[in-house]
Amino acid sequence: MLASGVNAQKVTPSKWSWALSKPNPAVGETVDIIFTIKNDKTWHHFATDFDEGGPIITTVKFKPNDSYELVGKLKSINPIKKKDEIFEVNVAYFEGKGEIRQSVKILKDVVLIEGSHDGQACSDATGQCVPIKGAFKLEAKAGANQDALLKKKAMTKTKVK
Predict the structure, then answer these.
(1) What is the percentage of the chain residues whose pLDDT exceeds 90?
(2) Does residue 93 contact residue 44 with C-beta atoms inside 8 Å?
(3) d(Cα 96, Cα 100) in Å, to the nearest integer?
(4) pLDDT recorded at residue 9
(5) Taking the domains of the chain in order of start, what are their residue ranges?
(6) Which residues pair with residue 75 across a beta bridge?
(7) What is the pLDDT of residue 138?
(8) What gap in Å lies between CA 139 and CA 70, rounded to an integer?
């Protein structure tokens, strides 16, 4: 008997990153969490809102935390929309680079936003589809930039006198 090893490679054609639309928002301010998706050449990543019965729709789950609250729904920004020939439903996806946003209201001075994303990427070149899953974590101190700006203004006024 011969034994052979199989080297399985994990394919990760979509890379996710995330940031707040304003690095240090004030308490009470509403800002966006911007999820950026970068896809390898020939790959596309499905968006957050299209007909069910087709590929996996991208979802983002947020871990509850009293430092923020969700405002509205998760939004895909300018996805490509078309009827999928295989699933025979309308789909929305990103080629190259994509963006998904979620608005949040800042409730405390120290903000912690964490959770997970789940979706699917496919390649028209190979016909391959893979699940894309991961976790995210954002931390910010509310108003940190504003504090620095106020100190700078105070110093400028002192020097003028």
Answers:
(1) 73
(2) yes
(3) 14
(4) 57
(5) 14-160
(6) 101
(7) 96
(8) 16
